[in-house]
Amino acid sequence: VQLVESGGGLVQPGGSLRLSCATSGFMFSRATMSWYRQAPGKERDLVANITRFGVSTHYAHSVKDRFTISRDNVENTVFLQMNALKPEDTAVYFCHARVFGRDGLWTGPYWGQGTQVTVSS
């Protein structure tokens, strides 16, 4: 199983970034995909998640109306579009997967290695 994040970097307040998480090694279409973030000295928190066919999404209150999670079940990739970025969005962003198997059991969680997002002027 591999989850590889990309798209992080340094951006000014008010700017935008689009994170990608390319996956392999599991049935992506059966996975609930999530983005988490962890700032220095803080716990890892859920940012957003999206169900298997993108029918349902959930966002942390702090990012609602600024971030959008989406997925491509052909390319096995999940995205996080981040707009109106604030300094408090600075963190390492991690991709996360849990897979609902045909046997009715969940497997995972699986994590990526993370990508740094820094919002600063």
What are the key terms here?
single chain; 121 residues; mainly beta; seven-stranded mixed sheet
Structure notes:
By secondary structure, the protein is mostly beta strands. It has strands at 2-6, 9-11, 17-24, 31-38, 44-50, 57-59, 67-72, 77-82, 91-100, 106-111, 115-119. The model has no long low-confidence stretch (mean pLDDT 96).
Gist?
The chain has strands spanning 2-6, 9-11, 17-24, 31-38, 44-50, 57-59, 67-72, 77-82, 91-100, 106-111, 115-119. By secondary structure, it is an all-beta fold.
For the largest beta-sheet, the strand count, sense and barrel status come to: 7 strands, mixed
Strand percentage, roughly?
Answer: over 45%
Write the element-wise H/E pattern from the N-terminal end onward. Answer: EEEEEEEEEEE
Low-confidence region ranges: none
Layout of helices and strands, plus pairs?
Layout (H helix, E strand, L loop, with lengths): L1 E5 L2 E3 L5 E8 L6 E8 L5 E7 L6 E3 L7 E6 L4 E6 L8 E10 L5 E6 L3 E5 L2
Parallel strand pairs: 2-11
Antiparallel strand pairs: 1-3, 3-8, 4-5, 4-9, 5-6, 7-8, 9-10, 9-11
